[in-house]
Specification:
By secondary structure, the chain is α+β, with helices and mostly antiparallel strands. The protein has one domain (about 20-180): NADH Oxidase, CATH 3.40.109.10. About 40% of the residues lie in helices and about 15% in strands. The protein contains 6 helices and 4 strands. The chain has helices at about 10-15, 35-45, 65-80, 90-100, 120-140, 155-160; strands at about 55-60, 105-110, 145-150, 170-175. It has a 4-stranded antiparallel beta sheet. Helix 2 packs across helix 5 (about 120-140), helix 3 runs antiparallel to helix 4 and helix 3 packs antiparallel against helix 6 (about 155-160). The longest helix has 22 residues, at about 120-140. The chain is globular and about 60 Å long. The two termini are about 40 Å apart. Bound molecules: flavin mononucleotide. Flavin mononucleotide binds near residues 19 and 146.
Length: about 200
Amino acid sequence: MSSLLPDHASVSALLRHRRSIKPADLDPARVVDQGLLLQVIEDATWAPNHGLTEPWKFHVFTGESRALLAGGLQKAYRDSTPPEEFREDKMRKMGENPLLAPVVIACVMERHGGGGKIPEIEEVEAVACALQNLQISATAAGLGGYWSSPPVLEAPSFRQWLGIRAGDRCLGLVYLGWPKAELKWPRSVRRPVLDKVVWREGTA
Ligand SMILES: Cc1cc2nc3c(=O)[nH]c(=O)nc-3n(C[C@H](O)[C@H](O)[C@H](O)COP(=O)(O)O)c2cc1C
């Protein structure tokens, strides 16, 4: 085994350490180096994907472009939300969040390979694997962030704004940045693993 490989205990600790860190807990002034971003995204692309279709595209918003993203999200929310469901607080957050995080990555599932033979669900699953890779790689680098999936990502006006083709889908916005110095790393819980396992041994 290559000595470059981390030991199992380290990988397990990394997986358990990852937390969803909201934009308000990221340092908006501390830039994330583009080389690091590329490494994290390249790590994402090592996810399993059926037929090697690599069904992902990462739209990386940094600097001024985050305000454009905020505007695109807000317009789509306004256009796609019936008046009785419209919430001012959601509208405000859509405008604020992209400016609080130094990096926002719109993660798109693109159906461009495999001659259309791979079912959509498998392409979605591959992108989900990639996004987990991305989050784990970012965590290992010391970055914080989270996967956000507001329904507005499916709204026609947002799809048009981002340039999503028919059949493709934006599956999430991943917010990334350096955690604020004062952030207390959040704790989370998972139910006991034995509640989730069915041992099927023998002939029964
Ligand atoms: C597909 C997917 C979509 C998610 N969308 C949202 C979201 O829209 N808003 C949100 O607050 N968290 C979202 N999350 C993050 C979860 O809320 C978070 O993973 C969960 O609370 C567990 O916390 P942890 O990530 O710190 O373990 C999403 C996670 C996944 C896997």
